[in-house]
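Milestone 3.1: sequence recovery, worked example.
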């Protein structure tokens, strides 16, 4: 018996990884339901053969559940859920407001959680292997001045994904955290990135100020090709092409720079543990 045609539901398909994963899946004859806050921004995907729907991942759960039911009814099943919605909030912790912090986590973390909650009943009832792809980042591994909130949100995404993978394994749902390095998308464009409304002059000559300048310099000069990256992702999530015969990994370190960042973090952590081992571990009951 041949496998059913993959059916993808992709959030934030108006740009970046969401858009180009949708195009790559369509090019392979898969079914795609692409979503965005405004469908005017995904008309190109409709012209390419995708079904398009309006979806704001920060909507109340009942609204997301309604969208999930309508999406599942479209083809009778969903095989791949991609949570691609997210943005970066630039600013020192002292600069960002509680509302900016909440809005950031509401999209990057709670949006991922609630969309997953809405779709999980349908994924569980679909036969065969299913996948949920949540977007972490190299910032899931390394925090730095000026992007603490983004890093925290992406650490949360990766940690939650790892736990979800264990929870959903009995239902043949493979959860993976996609952790890209710098790819040339619109992610750092001035219209996409969010900067704290408050700017404290004391931070201008620190790493926080340097980061703001770096984002402008790096924008549209990132090394990663998003179309190549999405081809790799679709291969991995469907066990095809370069990923034929391989299991879907718990995380995908995507891009030439991502593994380097992660390996450096591992080495730093190993050094830290070795340095403090005899002090911090001598804490058990006699």
């Amino acid at each position: 018996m041949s496998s059913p045609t993959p059916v993808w539901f992709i959030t934030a398909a108006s740009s970046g990884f969401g858009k180009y994963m949708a195009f790559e899946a369509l090019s392979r004859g898969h079914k795609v339901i692409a979503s965005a806050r405004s469908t005017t921004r995904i008309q190109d995907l409709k012209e390419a053969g995708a079904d398009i729907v309006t979806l704001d991942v920060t909507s109340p759960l009942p609204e997301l559940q309604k969208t999930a039911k309508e999406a599942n009814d479209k083809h009778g099943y969903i095989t791949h859920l991609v949570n691609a919605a997210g943005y970066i909030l630039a600013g020192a912790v002292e600069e960002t407001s509680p509302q900016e912090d909440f809005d950031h986590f509401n999209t990057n973390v709670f949006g991922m959680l609630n969309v997953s909650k809405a779709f999980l009943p349908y994924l569980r009832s679909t036969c065969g292997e299913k996948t949920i792809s949540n977007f972490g980042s190299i910032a899931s591994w390394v925090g730095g001045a000026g992007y603490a909130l983004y890093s925290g949100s992406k650490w949360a995404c990766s940690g939650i994904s790892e736990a979800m993978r264990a929870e959903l394994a009995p239902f043949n749902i493979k959860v993976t955290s996609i952790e890209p390095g710098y790819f040339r998308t619109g992610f750092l464009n001035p219209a996409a990135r969010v900067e704290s409304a408050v700017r404290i002059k004391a931070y201008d000559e620190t790493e926080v100020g340097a980061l703001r300048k770096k984002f402008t310099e790096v924008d549209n000069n990132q090394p990663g090709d998003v179309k190549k990256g999405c081809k790799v992702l679709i291969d991995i999530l469907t066990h095809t092409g370069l990923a034929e015969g391989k299991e879907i990994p718990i995380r995908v370190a995507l891009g030439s720079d991502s593994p380097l960042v992660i390996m450096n973090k591992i080495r730093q952590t190993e050094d830290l543990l070795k340095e403090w081992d005899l002090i911090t571990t001598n804490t058990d009951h006699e």
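The mean pLDDT is 95. The beta strands are 7-10, 31-36, 51-54, 80-83, 89-90, 130-135, 173-180, 194-195, 251-254.
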